[in-house]
Amino acid sequence: MEKDAAREVVRATFRCGSELQTLLAFLKTQCSADEYKVYTRKIAAAIDGIHKILLDSVLEQFPELETEIEANIARTGRAMP
Predict the structure, then answer these.
(1) Which of 4, 31, 71, 75 has the most CB atoms lying inside 10 A of its own CB?
(2) What is the pLDDT of residues 6-32, one digit of tens each?
(3) 81 lies in a domain?
(4) pTM of the shown model
(5) CA torsion angle for 51, 55, 56, 58 (degrees, to 10)?
């Protein structure tokens, strides 16, 4: 994989997490407290799994991207602009 493709994986990974967080906010308005509690755990596990699997693979190949991601988040609030 080329570095630009790895950056796109990072972008997609963070977009997935963002979409699931948005879903969680929606579910809070639609579910009972007990249902919401179940979904919060499952969505958190899904976000963690996506990040662990995809980001670990990318960062294993391009460890320097970790610094780039952190700098971008500090500067713009996004992993990759």
Answers:
(1) 31
(2) 999 999 999 999 999 999 999 999 999
(3) no
(4) 0.81
(5) 160
